[in-house]
């Protein structure tokens, strides 16, 4: 079981950018498919982006394609989510997940989350 820590959230105006990072305080993520999920108030947690353990491919939900980019650096045990052209509907708590399945957590490990707020 890995322990994940997210950082990089904050308040930004619509059209702005943020970069979220996720690293481990315990364990390694180098062999794990990683994901970012988000949960807006009153809504269920949803998959946003995922990347294979070797970084060979990434997957995004339609609403963030072309705006968000997920990357990883296995040597540093870190994954990132670059978020550009942010919209108010992107406002949510963003969670890093280790060991995801096909757009689902399953038995994954979660971070504590980081708040992203986009003002209009």
- Count of strand segments: 11
Biggest sheet character: 7 strands, mixed
Instruction: State the distance separating the first and last CA atoms.
Output: 39 Å
Compressed to H and E, one letter per element, the order equals EEEEEEEEEEE
Q: Could you say which overall geometry the principal axes of the C-alpha atoms support? A: globular
- What is the helix content? under 10%
Low-pLDDT residue spans: none
Q: Mean pLDDT, nearest integer? A: 96
Structure annotation, total helices: 0
**Using only CA atoms, what is the Rg?**
13 Å
In terms of structural class, how would the helical and strand content be classed? mainly beta
| Proportion of residues in β-strands | over 45%
């Amino acid at each position: 079981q890995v322990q994940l820590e997210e950082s990089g959230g904050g308040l930004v105006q619509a059209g702005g950018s943020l970069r979220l990072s996720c690293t481990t305080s315990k364990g390694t993520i180098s062999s794990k498919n990683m994901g970012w999920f988000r949960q807006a108030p009153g809504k269920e947690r949803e998959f946003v982006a995922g990347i294979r353990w070797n970084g060979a491919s990434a997957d995004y939900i339609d609403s963030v394609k072309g705006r968000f980019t997920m990357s990883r650096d296995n040597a540093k045990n870190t994954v990132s989510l670059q978020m550009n052209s942010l919209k108010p509907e992107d406002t949510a708590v963003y969670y890093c997940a280790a060991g995801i399945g096909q757009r689902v957590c399953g038995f994954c490990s979660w971070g504590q989350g980081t708040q992203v707020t986009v003002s209009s």
